[in-house]
TrEMBL record:
<protein>
    <recommendedName>
        <fullName>Siphovirus Gp157 family protein</fullName>
    </recommendedName>
</protein>
<dbReference type="Pfam" id="PF05565">
    <property type="entry name" value="Sipho_Gp157"/>
</dbReference>
<feature type="coiled-coil region">
    <location>
        <begin position="17"/>
        <end position="69"/>
    </location>
</feature>
<dbReference type="InterPro" id="IPR008840">
    <property type="entry name" value="Sipho_Gp157"/>
</dbReference>
<keyword id="KW-0175">Coiled coil</keyword>
Length: 164
């Protein structure tokens, strides 16, 4: 039986008692069985939640390990490319072709700035301004708790299930 079905039966029995269709004493055994079923089902679901949380932690740990491996591999590739490039240029080799690889240099142009602050001061027309504005939820919460009305913001009380 599913948890919601047990809940429906439990609420049906309580409703019958409240409407005096039966007495609490006559339904005591049924209520006890339903409460036990509910408790067992809730306990099973809580165990599933704990198991899934453990899986999540393991997956997160593995993601972090994989991220470190990826970052290490990226750095290794960058180092190897710089090493190969410098050695090829040192011997004057601009192109190299083997049965497995074809290596060559392609020219590119990039901008290097010695002093960004000085450049910003001397050439403000060549700069861009990035502004990120986000609501300060902690400040809003404090104001709302004081009773201040803030359009578009309100406090929501939640019930957070804790499983230990």
């Amino acid at each position: 039986m599913k948890l919601y079905e047990i809940t429906d039966i439990y609420n049906g029995v309580l409703s019958a008692i409240e409407n005096e269709e039966c007495t609490a004493e006559s339904m005591e055994e049924a209520l006890k069985i339903i409460e036990d079923d509910f408790e067992n089902k809730a306990d099973s679901i809580a165990c599933m939640i704990k198991g899934l949380n453990a899986d999540i932690a393991g997956i997160k740990s593995e993601e972090e390990a994989l991220k470190k491996r990826r970052e290490s591999a990226v750095k290794r590739v960058e180092w190897l490319k710089a090493y190969l490039s410098s050695e090829m240029l040192a011997v004057g080799q601009k192109k190299l072709e083997t049965p497995r690889n074809k290596l060559s240099f392609r020219p590119s142009v990039s901008v290097f700035i010695d002093d960004e602050l000085e450049l910003k001061a001397m050439h403000p027309e060549l700069t861009t301004v990035k502004t990120v504005v986000t609501p300060d939820k902690n400040a809003i919460k404090a104001e709302l708790k004081k009773g201040v009305h803030i359009n578009g913001a309100y406090l929501v009380e939640k019930q957070n299930l804790q499983i230990k």
